[in-house]
Amino acid sequence: MPNIKSAIKRVKVNQKANAANTQVKSAMRTTVKKAENAVAAKAENAQELLQAAYKSLDKAASKGLIHKNAAARKKSRLAKKA
């Protein structure tokens, strides 16, 4: 544990940011997985789940959690499956 006040604060801020980033990234993976499963099963709500997956991918890319080209690639591959 750091002794300097600013270093202590950086640790706290980094932990908070890490938790937020983990939550967004986990939600992104979940929505993408749900969309892939719905498309594979030819579910009725597959289109809605695809839109949710696109939204979560864009959100993760805008926050810098994944590269914008990676988000575009994943969206393209989802669209191809659908």
From TrEMBL:
InterPro entries from the UniProt entry: Ribosomal_bS20, Ribosomal_bS20_sf
GO-annotated cellular components: ribosome
Keyword Ribosomal protein: yes
Pfam families in alphabetical order: Ribosomal_S20p (PF01649)
Coiled-coil ranges from the UniProt annotation: 32-63
Keywords (A to Z) from UniProt: Coiled coil, Ribonucleoprotein, Ribosomal protein, RNA-binding, rRNA-binding
Function: Binds directly to 16S ribosomal RNA.
HAMAP family: Ribosomal_bS20 (MF_00500)
Homology family: Belongs to the bacterial ribosomal protein bS20 family.
Protein name: Small ribosomal subunit protein bS20
Gene: rpsT
